[in-house]
Each structure stands twice: as structure tokens, then as C-alpha cells.
Amino acid sequence: MTAGARIYHLAVRDEWDAAGADGYYRRSTLGASLEDVGFIHCSHAHQVSTIADLVYRGRDDVVLLEIDPARVDAEVRVEPAHGDEYPHIYGPLPADAVVRTHDLELDGSGTLVIPRLGDAVR
Description:
The protein is mostly beta strands. It has a single domain, classed as Protein of unknown function DUF952 (ADP-ribosylation fold), CATH 3.20.170.20. 15% of the residues lie in helices and 37% in strands.
């Protein structure tokens, strides 16, 4: 991973809001916890739209977490999955590692509208 590069995680708004109780977020992906999977699924900027379409299409309660990996206490590994390499966080995500959140809206076809995340978004 490039120094200073951000990674991203799509979350259900209520689950992200619940992270404030102890300062850590523990959801891996939709319907699965960190304890269930062993890591938190993340994406590079150019992968966010693909994951949004695959997993969260049609949901109006999704927030995109922009994460500074340098602020994550747990190991962050970039590993092969689905024909690409994705970042995975092997432990809870400290809420203060999330440097920005993006509330996502749906377009008319049920696709989540992803904001521009630097020049890497396709």
C-alpha cells in the first residue's frame, strides 16, 4: 500500500453509528461480523463501486468510511480476492482511523452514487 493512501469500507449506517459506544467498529461486511470472518473487508478507491453494486445495491442506509491505515492498530493485509487484491483489517477498526464518512444516495436504478475518491475512481 502506498504511504498516505486511504482504504474504504462500506457500512450500514446504524452499525457504524453503534461503533461510537467503545470507539471500535467490528463489522466485516453486510450480515457478518469481524468475529464471523476474521477480518474487516475493505477496498481501494477504484474497487468501491464494484463492491457497492455486488453487496449493497438498493440499500439507502449505506455510509462509505474513508480510513487512514496508519491509524489502524491491527494488521492491514492486501490479499487476493475476486480476481483483484483487496485490503483486509485483521482486528477492530478504531473509529478515529476513519478520517471521513460519505453518506451514499441511490440513483434511479438502485445503484449507490459513489463520490469522487481522488483520481483512482473509475
